[in-house]
Amino acid sequence: MGLLDKLKGAVHAVTGGAATVEIQYAEKVAAGGSLAVKVTVTSKGAEIKSKGVFVDFEGSEQIHIPKKDEQKFSEDYRRALSHSTQEFQLCGEFVLGAGETKTVEGVIAVPPTLQPSFEGRWTKNLYQVRGRLEAKGNDPDSGYKPLRVTVAS
Hints:
Blueprint: H1 3-15, E1 19-25, E2 28-30, E3 34-43, E4 48-65, E5 77-91, E6 94-96, E7 101-109, E8 118-119, E9 123-135, E10 145-150
Parallel strand pairs: 2-10
Antiparallel strand pairs: 1-3, 3-7, 4-5, 4-6, 4-9, 8-9, 9-10
């Protein structure tokens, strides 16, 4: 391994660019239901020592009132509050070889107390998930993807 390869490996560890991560799931689930997920991780070059594959779940409430809609405001009013965060481990430690791909499937339990997703004129209640490979440095991830939570029937 040459100096440039070592530098590239160090940059990937810091930026999360050592692997690509993709997540597949049904984009709609009822509160209290189960969500099947499939996370695929691929090394972009060097071997990666991972502490596992995870799915991160996050819910947030957001408010945005444009100043044009409210005379009292001198600027847009924005607030966001994260109200639900959970981490689900799909598998434990493993080594991902150079250029290797690994797919992990699992089921996450969606909390039964969640309010449904909605988007109103000024407020939103949103949920999202992402697949993540826990590794040294910045964890490579899929980026957050939307998830629609409905009322349990």
